[in-house]
Amino acid sequence: MTNGNRVKRGLASDSRCGGCNGSLEDAVHVLRDCPHAMAFWQVLLPGNKWNEFFSGECREWWTKNVMRREMEGIPLQWNVLFALGCWWLWRWRNQRVFEPGKQLPFNKVAFVVNQARQVKEAARILRGEAPHSVLPVSKPRVGIRPVLPESEERSNLGGDRPSLYDALYMTPRSQFS
């Protein structure tokens, strides 16, 4: 729930965005107009698409991007990338508001691009277009915890320090595919 909605319901006293201390925090502000969101989308989108992307009222903006499968200059399916970007922007906003000490990913765009790549690969596997490998897993003995690689054990979503993920996925836009 945005701060604007929280004030209307008597759950908060300030309707401004907690991320930028700017204007009224509503859904379009969190997902598009806040400087945090704008920086995210500006890294993801080619510069010639900014004016088109950052315009329109909320419902029109949302519908246009959810229905759009391709975006010039982005080799991943745009509506998947857009939906994941919005979902994570909303989650990171909630973490800033409700869990202020929680660490956020260092490179948010690379994080979301990697998620989109995983969705793309999962879809290929489900359609039967790509083989999936199953690693043999043996059940650990009672009392023995399986050892996970550092990047899995302490992800940026819950770890107390940046993971290897941050270093590995600082990907330039030209290598999104």
Indicate the proportion of strand residues: under 5%
The amount of helix comes to: 40-55%
What oligomeric arrangement do these chains adopt?
single chain
Tell how many strands the DSSP assignment holds.
Answer: 0
Give the radius of gyration: 19 Å
In angstroms, what separates the terminal alpha carbons? Answer: 34 Å
Q: Could you say which overall geometry the principal axes of the C-alpha atoms support?
A: globular
- Overall pLDDT metric: 79
Q: What structural class do helix, strand and pairing data support?
A: mainly alpha
- Runs in which pLDDT lies below 50 for 5 or more consecutive residues are 144-148, 150-177
Q: Count up the helices.
A: 9
Main β-sheet, in a few words?
none
Can you write the helix and strand succession as a string?
Answer: HHHHHHHHH
Compact description:
The chain is mainly alpha-helical. The chain is built from 9 helices and no strands.
